[in-house]
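Good morning,

Both structures are done.
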Amino acid sequence: MEPSRYLFELASKNCPNCHLENTGIESYDSKETFDVVLAVNVFEHLPDPKLFLIKTANLLNTEGVALLIYPTQEQFNYDVCFVDHLFHMRLGHLKYLAEEAGLTVLKQEIGYKSYQVANAVLLKKNTGQSQATGRKPDYLDNENPHLMIDIFRSFDEVISKFKGHKRIVAFGYGELSKVFNAYTQNFDCIEYFIDDFTTSTDGRVMGFDKAQESGILQNALLVFLVNPYYRQHLGKRLQAASGLSHIYYPIEKELITL
């Protein structure tokens, strides 16, 4: 199922043997039931998550399972800053809604490799009475908005300290850099972005080797704007880079002098 007309046509072109529907699950009706319903990075975008779970339960056969993958709030997660993520749930919130929709949580797993903010939840149709039995979770059971406000405040303070007498370069041109771009005052001070995996027409974006060869790392503050779980893989390489004077890890609010 793909509600976007453009993406539906693109999917149809690239997967001609698939059965595709240009609709969302909220308006999808089927007499057929299924073994598996899969929703990857969909749940957090839905305006009515309970309706989604009800429709999902209706689509499952008696032995069927649903697998939801969405950003967890069981641990630190900066997804609270994305305006298109309409709900930010802990497992207790999902369990409560799932029980009301006639589903039971079978298994939960948080994090996979570098994707440590993902929550994978396996649900099964409840063949008994679909009535919520658990305590309704608190509405604001999430400290991540407060953590992000503090992180943005620290970011602005550090960038202001170096602005004007150090070249400021960012490692990463992905989703985390977009978050800081939207919520901080000093993001425009970043002159270049280093990213080996992103192609961009923006002339400020280049690979790590080119950044070293061009000399932009000389006497520079390098701001680590990639997924924080990559830090252990990249830290030694960054500290060995010639010319850098400081590395700043904004998620951890840690500034390292080299």
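Second structure follows.
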Amino acid sequence: MSHHKIRLVAEWEHQECILMALPFSGSDWDYILTEVLECYHSIISALTAADVKVLLLCRCRKEAEELLSDVRLENLVIVECEYNDTWTRDYGPIAVERMERKRSLDFGFNGWGLKFAADKDNLVNLQLRDKYIIEPDCYRNERDFILEGGSIETDGRGTLLTTTRCLCSPNRNGGKSKDELAEILRERLGVEHILWLDYGALAGDDTDSHIDTLARMAPEDTILYTGCRDIDDEHFEELLKMRAQLMLFRTMSGEPYNLVELPMPDAVFDEDGHRLPATYANYLVTERVIFMPGYGQPAKDVLACQTVRIAYPGHEVVQVNCIPLLKQHGSLHCATMQLHEGWVNGTLFLKS
């Protein structure tokens, strides 16, 4: 593989832990703080019960310990840290391998194109390095380039799936062209094959079409994607165009992808009548378990779980109610970021 043998690591590969950040008083979550903390409790309980380790950032250790006193504490490490918001997917470190050694890449984060304050979020990875949570010799400063974890998907074999709307947005990297961006992505992530999705946007999404709301790469040249079968839904035409483009995509060896359509949740609205970006594509893959967001819609929630099993037949699927996360325009994948084995301090989860 070219580009100094750099390889962008797939989400389903061996992980050390999942990085999360607890909502706190004084943040955008204030108006539903109790409700969203219950949601975080549910997610962390589900992860730790499945023997997935969680590295939890918080503003107040005592409050975090009280909230999570009943979870499996051997699978939980709590770290006090400064941050603006809870979407660790987008400011957490991105894993690559170079010459079989793990590297933790710290890209710049500017609040999804200068929409929200991100000054503290943008320093989280540096704090994790300085606290020796991320091994300092694995840390790499890539902060001159804005890149959010939710905006990229990989198969771990040199292919990158992303959206034109997000990466080419002028408020991220000065409106660089696709060719310029492709060269940077190749150089820094080692990817050789870039699939640019030009269609797909969910009402209420303020990320400029993050790929993890629309289409997800899976093993065996499979892509799971958000479909829409309701001709009266505002998403119908856009998602139809997205599906048509996915059908045209080819693997590095020239084969079409195996496409698996996820259902579109029934519309969810906030108290002002604005539609929220509910999507089943926003799931988290760990080595043995997939954590799927649920939206209180029994038939579709179950169908989404059954559908993702097509691509991951060996995985268990655990569903967690994520309606509270929708109210700040995110879901389960946005709230989590996998930290891979080899660049997290190996003594973190060792209890004396």
